[in-house]
Every structure is written in C-alpha cells, then in structure tokens.
Amino acid sequence: MYPDDVKYTKSHEWVRVANGLATVGITDYAQEELGDIVNIELPDAGTRLRVGDPFGTVDSVKAVSDLMSPVTGEVVEVNEDLEASPELINQEPYGSGWMIIVRMEDPSEQDELMTGEAYEGFIEQE
Amino acid sequence: MLAAIGVPDLDTLFAQIPEEAQLKRPLNVPSGIAEQDVVALCERLAAQNRHLGELVCFLGAGAYDHYIPAVVEAVTSRSEFCTAYTPYHPEASQGLLQTIYEYQSMICALTQMEVSNASLYDAATAIGEAAIMAAGITNRSRVLVSRAVHPHYRQVLATYTSGLGIEVAEVEYAAGVTDLPALWERLDESVACVIVQYPNFFGCVEALAQMAELARGAGALLVVCADPIALGLLRPPGAYGADIVVSEGQALGIPIGFGGPLLGMFACRQEYLWHIPGRIVGATVDAEGRTAYTLTLQTREQHIRREKATSNICTNQALAALAATAYLAALGRNGLRRVAELCFQKAHYAAQQICARPGFSSPWRAPFFKEFVINCGKPVAEVNRRLLDNGILGGLDLGRYYPELEGHALFCTTEKRTKAEIVRLVEML
To answer: Quick one: which of A58, A54, A55 has its CA closest to A39?
Structure first.
C-alpha cells in the first residue's frame, strides 16, 4: 500500500528517484479521497519546477486538487496516457498512473521527504 | 403575523436596525386599488409603447421578428418550468435536466459541433466567454474580431476582456464582408482566436472556409457567431472546422420582448470540453439502470474551481433554452429549412424591389441571408420617420455605428413579412 521504493510528501504526492530522474505521482490515499478521477492537467515537457510549485490539477467528479512538485528541476517526460485514461491514477497510482518525470537539480531534496512508514503515520492523523 | 412571532408591533420588529438608518415616515405607496383599476392603469401605461403587434417590422440587427408557434408557449408556460430557477442540485428535477440535455443535443446537430453547454445569457456574452476560453486554450493574449460583427457584441467583448490582459484588435470589412487580406496580415502567433459572425451584422455570408484555413495556419481558434435560423439553410460552421460556435437563440421561439431575455448558445469541439464555460447536463444510468440526467463536469465551474475557473457564470437561460428546444422540436429539420428559405427569398425580393426605387441602391454584391444594407441616399432618420408614420418599422440607421455608412440602413425580412407588406414598404420609401 505504501511502497518503500518511493518517498512521500505531506500533500500526498510520491517520488521515485533513479539516476537523477524523479518520477512523480499521487498516493493511493489521495486517489481514494478524490474518488473517480475524470481529468488531469499536466505541464509541458521543458517546464522548470521548483519544490512546492503547483505543477498541475487533477479533477474528480466533485472536486479539483492542485498537484505540488516535490522536487526542483526540469520536466523531461509527461504521461500522455492520462489524458485519455485518467482512471489509471485510481487503478495504479504508483504504476501506470505516474504523472511526470523531473530531472532533479538538487538530489538532497529527497531527504526532506517521508518514508512509507512515516507517511502511513502521517495520514493516520489526518 | 406579529402575534404569531410574539412581537407587539412593527416598530419593535425593526428595533435592531440602528436609529439613524430607520425610515421615520410612512412609505410613499398609495393605498390599494381594485384589481380592475390596476388592469386599466397598466393598460394605459403599456399603450404608451408601440409594438410589433401593430407595427410591421423590417428591423433586425440582433433581435428578430420570427413567428413563434403556439406550442412553444404551451410548453414554457407550464408552472413546473416557468416558476423553476435554473438547476443547482446536480440530479434533482430530472424532467428539467432532460430538457436541457435535449437542448444541448439540438444545438450540436444545428451547428455540427460536438459539445454544447446548457446556454449562456446571450450571443454578446457568449462571444466574451469564447474569447477568454480561446486565450486559455492557446495561451495567447490577442483576439481578432471583425468589424462586421454586431457593434454591441464587440462592446461586450471589450468589457469581458478588460482587466484580463487580453487585447482585442478589429479587422476591417470590405464590400460587406470581413477583409481576408487584412485578416491574414493581422494573424500571427500572438492571436488566440478570430471572431466572425455568420451571416455578419450586415446580413452578408462570410467565407468561413478561407477563414478557418487562415486561422489554423496561425494556430488560432476560429470562433463563429451564427444566426440559428440561417443554419437551416447555410452550411453550419462545424462543417468548416470552426472551433467554437456561439449564437443568439432569440430567433428560436423567444419574443423580442424589450430586448430580452435572450439566449446565448455555446458549442465547441470535444477536445475543448474541459475549457467550456457554463453548466453541462450529461446522460447516465442510475443505481437501477434507468436513464438519468445530471449536471456534469462541474469541477470546471467557479463554485469548485474558484479563481482557476475559465468563467464565473454559474447559471443558464433555462426557460429561454426550453423555448428554443420546443421551437426546434416543433419545426424539425424540414420546418427550419422552410423558415430559412422564406427569410432568404423574401429578403432578396425586398432588396430587389427597394433598389428599383430611384435613390436607393445596394452598396455591395456580397451574398446575403435575411438582412441587407441599402444606401438610401438621404438621412435614414428621414426615411424611417415617414415609414413609422405609416405603421412600418424601418431598417437600422447604420451611420450611428459605422460613420462611413452614413445614409445606409440595415433592413431585415423574416418569414413573417408578407408580399403585401413588402410592397407597401417599398411604396412608402
């Protein structure tokens, strides 16, 4: 439920880092709370994000939420499948529901993020 | 009632209002009169207006004297419809939601566009919304609008875009239609959309195919404001690849009133679905598998998306949209075509007869639908005074809006105008 190969933010995004590239999505808790996701707006590749910047929005049937960037860097890839199939976020939030890949400028930013265990504790209090 | 809530008198009821804000004299409202006297008073007041029941109308310019079949009012006067406010609860009032869904479907069929919303206030604000939507979709901040678009619509467009950092530039017309070379010259990568009217304000048919190509070449959207009656005869903007189609729906079963209420129709391509303003009704199934209707895609709207919404409109013209739906259902495809044909033929007959009178001529040769411009060779006010003395409402004095068209009038001939009326108009010129 809260895989250990990823780190988590307080705004319910997850980050998986490999070779300086950070893949970002939203957590299972987030997709559950949102309900059926019907639309997503993501940035274009080439956009530079700073940690904490909103990088897009996700719409469910009755609510819209900002997506906050967990890292600083340039967007190198965007998951095009989500345009036609936003439900992938509900079905596989850590897999096919990934949203963007960012080339990290400062790898130490990972250390600010929560582990799976810490995140689980965090949402229990929410 | 005071006794029921345990308050001794009226003064005590209002005691919470600060002294200085209280009105210390009786309201200036005369005492009641009998219902019969009220009716007589209102009739006396109303008689001070002249109306289309007594005047033969050759005036158009945005509000049209089309025939309204009796069945339209039979539907809209039902208390379930005419006392209801526009729906806010997404799933209550299934009957009302169904009529909106049918309205949306008809607008798509009429314009040949993929998506329609539940309606906006009027064509003018619909154009404003279209411009803002196009700016959001393209991320560009300039809008081109033809001078052959209704002057009031252009004014509202300026109001809508002011403060949003969107610049509006006008494109000249030539020989009654938007000047294509001028349009080509103005088009560049800063332009979000091109806005034209079809037929245009002068009644002339614009070259949508060429405009679509020019706009697309610059990566701009094509926004077309179309006369819905004309769509019974002319090829719809959707067929030309328009991106957004708006319309003044007053011609579809809504009386001219006193300039309102009107009906803003708004349709666009499927790919822009998440950018469209206003309410949308969708069809689905309920928990028992029965067809059900619901307000849908609501996260676009301001009450959820707040400052990120493309529009703050959170209503529609429910009753006017219902009238349009009843009108279109009553006429059907063939009926609408017949109405359009009659408008077209009568307008051409009238134009021909008017131009046969010495002093009156047509300034250009562009094809037109139900409205046409006549050069009267003298002040239009003078022509119209004589017409009014003879119970005829003449064409619009174009010099008021286009200084270069001093002495020109915009005449309109709907399917309601008889041959005898047209002959009489020509005689009285």
So the answer is: A58
User: Tens of pLDDT along B289-300?
Assistant: 999 999 999 888
φ/ψ of B275, rounded to 5, equals: -105, -10
What is residue A107's DSSP assignment?
G
B304 vs A64: CB contact, 8 Å cut-off?
Answer: yes
The H or E element spanning position A59 is strand A54-60
CATH assignment of the domain containing A85 = 2.40.50.100
Domain membership flag for residue A111: no
Q: What is the strand order of the sheet B115-116 is part of?
A: B115-116, B264-268, B244-248, B221-226, B191-198, B142-146, B167-171
Residue of B88, B299, B310 to mutate when probing chain A, most A C-beta within 10 A: B299
Residues of B in contact with A38 (CB under 8 A): 297, 299
Q: Are B179 and B173 in contact (CB under 8 A)?
A: yes
Q: What is the pTM of this model?
A: 0.90
Q: In order of start, what are the domains of chain B with their CATH numbers?
A: 56-68+335-428 (3.90.1150.10), 70-325 (3.40.640.10)
d(CA B429, CA B385): 10
Residue A122 lies in a domain: no
Strands B142-146 and B191-198: parallel
Q: What is the pLDDT of residues B340-360, one digit of tens each?
A: 999 999 999 999 999 999 999
- pLDDT category, B389, cuts 50, 70, 90? very high
| Token pair in block for residue B290 | 């029965």
Q: Do A60 and B297 touch (CB under 8 A)?
A: no
Residue written as tokens 């109308």?
B57
Structure confidence at residue B172 as a pLDDT band (50, 70, 90): very high
